[in-house]
Amino acid sequence: MKKYKIAEENSDYFVAETQTEYLASRELAKEEKKSTLGFNGLTPSEWALLSKNVVVEDDLLNPVWNDLSSPRNKYQLEHGAVYPIKLCERLIKMYSKEGDAIFDPFLGIGTTMIAAHQLSRHCVGTELNPKFADIAGKWLADVQGLFANDLHYKIVNDDCRNLLKHVHKDKIQVTVTSPPYADFIQKSLKDRETTHKTSVIKIENNSTVKQYSQEENDFGNLPYPAFLEQIKHILKDNLEVTKAGGYSCWVVKDYRDTKNKVPYVPFHSDLARAGEEVGWKYHDLIIWDQTGQRRLVLLGYPSVLYTNQNCSFIVVFRKVK
Ligand SMILES: C[S@@+](CC[C@H](N)C(=O)[O-])C[C@H]1O[C@@H](n2cnc3c(N)ncnc32)[C@H](O)[C@@H]1O
Questions:
Q1: Which atom of ligand 1 is nearest to the CA of 177?
Q2: According to DSSP H, which parts of 155-284 are helical?
Q3: Which residues of 45-74 are buried (b: 16+ CB within 10 A; e: fewer)?
Q4: Chain segment 198-257, per-residue pLDDT in tens
Q5: Are strands 54-56 and 281-289 parallel, antiparallel or unpaired?
Q6: CB neighbourhood size of 89 (10 A)
Q7: Can you tell me which atom of ligand 1 is nearest the CA of 105?
Q8: d(Cα 218, Cα 147) in Å, to the nearest integer?
């Protein structure tokens, strides 16, 4: 086991136990003896493993995160911005138990549904683009062909603003989702066409970013202020369909709009505020470290100097009774 050196004020360096060793030797042993499982069916050690708030993709000690970078399958390749199944599985395991209902308002090609299926949870999702909804159906059928279960899966090809038509109130235990980031994708595509034609961003990151659709209802075509307003409506309806004590997890990135002289757009904070304004409790913030997936690029050098934003945030809300 690795040991870490920790600096203490007015003292020499000393060698501390790793977090895992500390937990294993003290709190876990105590909790394990009580042997009552959490509402999610996890033992104290299972929960401790899942509960780190910074998740590093190539952390081999962490069994649920070490294959996030596996090659994309034929369904995933059809979409420009999917998240890994393991990410969904982790969140679903953390905040629900078998037989619970999971929801994704921005279903895409159905990653959340596949994860829910693997973990024997029901799932419903809305997706605006018929092409992606169709792929979600095919992927699900593929997976069900191998391991069918008798739970319910519903893919709705509709605007998520109609979610109350498709999902009953107080039924969902966990929402796991990743919305489009307003019209930032379009801006970054334009940017790549002009400024970064031959840059490392385009060539070596082999970016597959695409606009989701030309549809007016597509959240990926809305300017940021209008987008935030609409996200707030979704969060409000999302709260209604969630059970008391249930959770809602939003995988998002922050952004820069340097063309308009906005150095930093703190989407994760704006999202958290919008959630609180409609009645969610801001429950947790998890950082998904993606340094392994992205090459460093020079940003703003030598005049302004920006850092590389190599992480996503998972904003976790809870419906408090
Ligand atoms: C970041 S992607 C989600 C990808 C998904 N997590 C996956 O792994 O497949 C966002 C999705 O939201 C969809 N979308 C955009 N506006 C929507 C709306 N008004 N209602 C429902 N879906 C919408 C887009 O078509 C896109 O597939």
A1: 6
A2: 163-166, 184-194, 200-203, 224-241, 267-277
A3: eebbbbeeeebbbeeeebebbeebeeeeee
A4: 443 343 334 455 667 778 899 999 999 999 999 999 999 999 999 999 999 999 999 998
A5: parallel
A6: 19
A7: 21
A8: 33
According to the CATH classification, is domain 67-318 in 3.30.420.40?
no
* Residue 55 backbone dihedrals phi, psi, to 5 degrees: -110, 125
Residue 54: closest CA among 19, 83, 81, 24: 19
What does the pLDDT look like over 43-58, one tens digit per residue? Answer: 888 888 888 888 776 5
Cβ(217) – ligand 1 distance below 6 Å: yes
Query: Do residues 169 and 103 lie in contact, with contact meaning Cβ atoms separated by under 8 Å?
Result: no
- Whether 76 lines ligand 1, by a CB cut-off of 6 Å, is no
pTM, whole model, 2 decimals? 0.85
CA distance 239 to 163: 11
User: What is the sign, positive or negative, of the torsion defined by CA atoms of 131, 73, 231, 236?
Assistant: positive
Q: Which atom of ligand 1 is nearest to the CA of 217?
A: 19
- Ligand 1 contact, 242 CB (< 6 A): no
CA 94 to centroid of ligand 1, rounded, Å: 23
Ligand 1 atom 5, closest CA:
108
Q: Provide CB contacts within 8 A for 62, sequence distance 6+.
A: 49, 52, 55, 56
Q: How many angstroms separate the alpha carbon of residue 128 from the centre of ligand 1?
A: 7
- Whether ligand 1 lies within 6 angstroms of the CB of 209 is answered as no
